């Protein structure tokens, strides 16, 4: 059969075509994993909200914490309605189109303040738990050990922040499986704590409930009244109840993570999102709300102020039982607290990085911030800025959890309110909501969103109350928000001016590309034939693997497709990017150099951009859709080539059936390429193993009289089935040891 004529190379032209996939390539997760990711942030508040709230409003605090947990179901509905309106362009574009550009900048600024403060309060709270436990263990053991909990919390908070700064700079993110394991351990702690507390109350004959949540039982001081002290407002009971509710709203922080995981939740998305949100709200109600109530009932009033910064630690030491057993459980509580609170630090970095990346893509932050790291490809300048602000916040707090909590509440409530206001405005502008916040009345042919409106109104009242009652938080939050607002405003104007200059200059320094936006990667959108070679590139200074492929590939047999993954931060998953945001200046520079290399060889290539959070999943999904025969990558600065191949292999295994088998080639500049077959394939046997197989076949055919009908595959099949059976037997350890010995020899 004659070979098809070789595809002709294109001349060095400027309008090369680039297919841009507009749907993010995702590896989907179950609602259990989604709930675990959200709870890793939201449920961490159980470790500090009770003490902060009681310091602000008195012994009635648990009732208000429980009220906030019930109110979280209404806020849940706001986020679900927001997610159901599939809006391209991110938070800034959503609020800009519904309320206006200035309010959009303010909403993003408040959200960034929220994320930046999440890290310090979580890490400092964990440091308080560890520092105070060290002192208690010193007292029990009779050692003269005493650390200042505040100073230790500052040291610990900075250390944890720097650890996650390093991992985020290197692009190493915690998996949903890791979050699920942490929440499983946390659940064990919560169940033991609640059951032990119930037993304690039963054996002690019960305990009085906290004072009823009425204005007369509130204990408000100059710090919790702020600028309202000395005015007529404290005499208005309803106003004071709103103030108390505002001091407790901190218990609901972390809900913004629900919107981030929405994109990764498996089909059916809205149904699974509702299940995820319900799991989160019920879990928080039964953990944060119930533990705050039990702490006030069990810890003596005279002792409880000592444990305001580590309330669960105080509760564990106030339970009935042997002192050593209580100390052991206290240690377990601190370990769990360290895990979940440290995880919240990582979530805050991911979230803030995601929001600021999206703002930069929307054109309201200078592109300088998004320049990728030369080795790791991450937006390290944004990460550095976030970490610097978090460390300065930790140092400024001097380990005071109450101070951080008051400041944190500012960003939480204003981000909730502005989010709700945007959704409320969109309710009257759009009618494509898959889910609507309940309590909608129809009158005169119009829909009145009573439930949504009431929730937004309540958030507004609480936001105003917090504005006037939290002096330090207001000064910090307003100043920070205004600074970010000014940065966004100036950046937007600078970017607009640069864009106009670039258009006017009509610079020919880079290749000009015709962008063809498609909802997903499909063979119909590319001219590449099945069996093509897919080359993944990202660093335009590291194209050696592409250069080798384009040099040695015979285009009569294989087409070459060059793809790059447009990175989407894990913290920016609520909305898709607009089309013009998927192909920026970096992608233009990258593909310009790709085209230059291809033109030198006189060979054409197809160009593809795929947005994704997980680059491994994106590469495998693209290769599977294109039915590529080979996926080619260069070396990674983040991991060894063996680990890179393993990650890509796991991504292939995660594909739904049917999966297209292909080979993976990792090209290293200084040595031979590494080849890995993905999917079922004939193994590459050593010559001595082939000889051993043939000798067994000869023995069976000649000595055992099985005759000529026996084939080598029959011998291999029996051996594999025997091995599979013996791996389930008592001989498994011995077999595994033999396999490890074989691996070491090879």
Please describe the structure with a list of short key phrases separated by commas or semicolons.
single chain, 746 residues, alpha/beta, 8-stranded mixed sheet, two-stranded antiparallel ribbon, 24 helices, 10 strands, 59% helix, globular, disordered N terminus
Condensed summary:
With 746 residues, this protein is an alpha/beta fold. The protein is built from 24 helices and 10 strands. Residues 1-15 have low confidence and may be disordered.
Reconstruct the topology from this structure.
Elements: E1 15-21, H1 31-42, H2 49-57, H3 61-84, H4 90-98, H5 101-141, H6 149-169, H7 176-203, H8 222-225, H9 237-248, H10 256-261, H11 269-298, H12 311-317, H13 323-361, H14 380-397, H15 401-429, E2 440-443, E3 446-449, H16 450-469, H17 471-505, E4 512-518, E5 533-536, H18 544-552, E6 560-567, H19 585-601, E7 606-612, H20 615-626, E8 630-633, H21 641-653, E9 662-666, E10 674-678, H22 687-702, H23 712-726, H24 732-745
Parallel strand pairs: 1-4, 1-7, 5-6, 5-8, 6-7, 8-9
Antiparallel strand pairs: 2-3, 9-10
Helix pairs in contact: 1-7, 1-11, 2-15, 3-11, 3-15, 4-5, 5-6, 5-13, 5-14, 5-15, 5-17, 6-13, 6-14, 7-11, 7-13, 9-16, 11-12, 12-13, 13-14, 15-16, 15-17, 18-19, 20-21
Explained architecture:
The protein contains 24 helices and ten strands. The chain is of the alpha/beta class and 746 residues long. The protein has an eight-stranded mixed sheet with strand order 4-1-7-6-5-8-9-10, sandwiched between helices. β9 and β10 form a beta hairpin.
Q: Let me know the largest β-sheet.
A: 8 strands, mixed
Radius of gyration from the alpha-carbon trace, in angstroms: 30 Å
**How much strand?**
5-15%
* Average residue-wise pLDDT: 83
How far do the termini sit from each other?
42 Å
DSSP strand tally: 10
- Share of residues in helices: 55-70%
The largest sheet has its strands arranged as 4-1-7-6-5-8-9-10
Structural class: alpha/beta
Count of DSSP-assigned helices: 24
Give the low-confidence spans.
Answer: 1-15
**What characteristic shape results from the CA principal axes?**
globular
């Amino acid at each position: 059969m004659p070979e098809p004529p070789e595809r002709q190379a294109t001349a060095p032209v400027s309008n090369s075509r680039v297919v841009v996939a507009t749907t993010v390539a995702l590896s989907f997760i179950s609602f259990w994993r989604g709930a675990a990711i959200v709870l890793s942030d939201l449920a961490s508040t159980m470790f500090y909200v009770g003490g902060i709230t009681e310091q602000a409003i008195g012994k009635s605090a648990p009732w208000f914490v429980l009220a906030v947990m019930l109110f979280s179901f209404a806020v849940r509905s706001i986020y679900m309605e927001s997610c159901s309106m599939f809006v391209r362009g991110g938070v800034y574009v959503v609020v800009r189109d519904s309320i206006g550009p200035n309010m959009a900048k303010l909403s993003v600024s408040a959200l960034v303040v929220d994320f930046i403060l999440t890290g310090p309060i979580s890490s400092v709270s964990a440091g308080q738990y560890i520092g105070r436990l060290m002192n208690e263990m010193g007292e029990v053991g009779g050692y003269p050990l005493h650390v200042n909990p505040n100073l230790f919390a500052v040291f610990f908070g900075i250390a944890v922040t720097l650890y996650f700064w390093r991992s985020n700079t290197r692009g190493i993110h915690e998996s949903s499986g890791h979050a699920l394991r942490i929440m499983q351990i946390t659940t064990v702690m919560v169940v033991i704590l609640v059951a032990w507390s119930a037993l304690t109350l039963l054996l002690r004959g019960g305990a009085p409930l906290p004072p009823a949540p009425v204005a007369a039982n509130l204990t408000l001081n100059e710090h919790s009244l702020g600028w309202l002290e000395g005015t007529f407002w404290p005499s208005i009971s309803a106003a004071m109840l709103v103030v108390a509710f505002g001091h407790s709203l901190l218990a609901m922080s972390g809900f913004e993570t629900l919107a981030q995981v929405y994109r990764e939740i498996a089909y059916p998305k809205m149904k699974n999102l509702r299940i995820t949100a319900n799991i989160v709200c019920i879990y928080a109600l039964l953990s944060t709300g119930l533990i705050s109530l039990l702490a006030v009932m069990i810890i003596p009033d005279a002792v409880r102020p000592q444990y305001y910064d580590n309330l669960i630690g105080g509760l564990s030491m106030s339970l009935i039982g042997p002192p050593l057993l209580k100390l052991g459980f206290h240690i377990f509580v601190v370990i769990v607290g360290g895990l979940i609170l440290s995880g919240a630090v990582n979530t805050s970095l991911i979230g803030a990085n995601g929001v600021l990346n999206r703002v930069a893509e929307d054109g309201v932050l200078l592109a300088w911030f998004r320049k990728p790291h030369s080795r790791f490809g991450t937006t390290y300048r944004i990460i550095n800025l976030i970490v610097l602000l978090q460390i300065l916040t930790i140092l400024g707090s001097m380990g005071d959890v109450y101070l951080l909590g008051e400041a944190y509440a500012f960003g939480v409530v204003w981000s909730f309110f502005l989010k709700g206001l945007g959704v409320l405005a969109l309710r009257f502008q759009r009618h494509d909501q898959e889910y609507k916040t309940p309590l909608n009345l129809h009158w005169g042919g119009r829909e009145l969103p009573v439930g949504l409106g009431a929730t937004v109104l309540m958030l507004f009242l609480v936001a105003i109350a917090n504005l006037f009652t939290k002096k330090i938080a207001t000064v910090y939050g307003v100043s920070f928000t205004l600074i970010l607002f000014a940065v966004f405003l100036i950046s937007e104007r600078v970017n607009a001016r640069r864009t106009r200059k670039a258009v006017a200059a009509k610079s020919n320094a880079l290749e000009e590309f015709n962008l063809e936006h498609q909802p997903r990667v499909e063979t119909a959108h590319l001219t590449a034939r099945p069996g093509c070679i897919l080359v993944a590139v990202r660093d335009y200074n590291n194209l050696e693997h592409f250069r080798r492929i384009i040099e040695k590939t015979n285009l009569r047999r294989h087409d070459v497709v060059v793809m790059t993954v447009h990175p989407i931060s894990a913290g920016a998953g609520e909305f898709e990017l607009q089309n013009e945001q998927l192909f920026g200046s970096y992608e233009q520079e990258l593909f310009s150099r790709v085209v230059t290399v291809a033109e030198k060889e006189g060979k054409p290539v197809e160009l593809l951009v795929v947005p994704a959070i997980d680059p491994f999943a994106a590469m495998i999904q693209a290769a599977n859709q294109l039915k590529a025969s080979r996926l080619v990558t260069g070396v990674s600065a983040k991991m060894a080539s063996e680990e890179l191949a393993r990650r890509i292999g796991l991504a292939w295994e995660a594909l739904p059936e049917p999966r297209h088998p292909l080979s993976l080639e990792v090209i290293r500049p200084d040595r031979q390429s590494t080849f890995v077959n993905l999917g079922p394939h004939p193994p590459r046997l050593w010559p001595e193993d082939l000889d051993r197989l043939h000798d067994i076949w000869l023995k069976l055919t000649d000595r055992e009289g099985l005759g000529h009908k026996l084939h080598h595959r029959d011998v291999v099949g029996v051996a594999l089935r025997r091995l599979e059976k013996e791996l389930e037997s008592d001989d498994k350890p011995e077999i595994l040891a033999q396999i490890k010995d074989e691996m070491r020899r090879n």
